[in-house]
Amino acid sequence: MLGTKLPICEQDAKLGALCKDCSLRLQNGQISDLDITISRIFSSVEDKFNLEEASFTKAIDMDTFIIIATDGNVGQLVGKKGRLVKYLSEKLGKLVRIVEVNEDINKAILDLMGQVSVVGINKVYKKEGHIEYAVMIAKDKNNKWLAPKEKMEDAIAQITGQSIKINLIGD
Ligand SMILES: [Zn+2]
Question: Which pTM does this prediction carry?
Fold first, then answer.
């Protein structure tokens, strides 16, 4: 069995120290302390929750909740009857939201935005050759923002590895 796919190596997740490679990735900002904390939680409950084929890629602290991203099956990290997500919330002291992030960037953006009225996502080709995802959101009193606009842009960018710009349209 391969074990749960984590942002740090299996040994570090199990033993509680960081190897040279993982320390370097922490210093470079490729992984965060939160990623390490959550990796260790997953590692400690791998057998209990059958996580051999689960994947955890990145976590973001949104102050009022934590986003946990997976490029695998969301259901595995939620657990039967939501038991694992509940356990994570208790351990981390915050609500946890599991989000699937794969090649389908639009789907990931929609998932991450939550209950706001997204009217379009445009791929914008910038002069410098990089791509920016412009997310169009209709101003709507029923929009339920999970976090302020700038914080959402930053979180989505970190999780998807893409540039994100959220634009509010209409009055
Ligand atoms: Zn390591």
Answer: 0.91
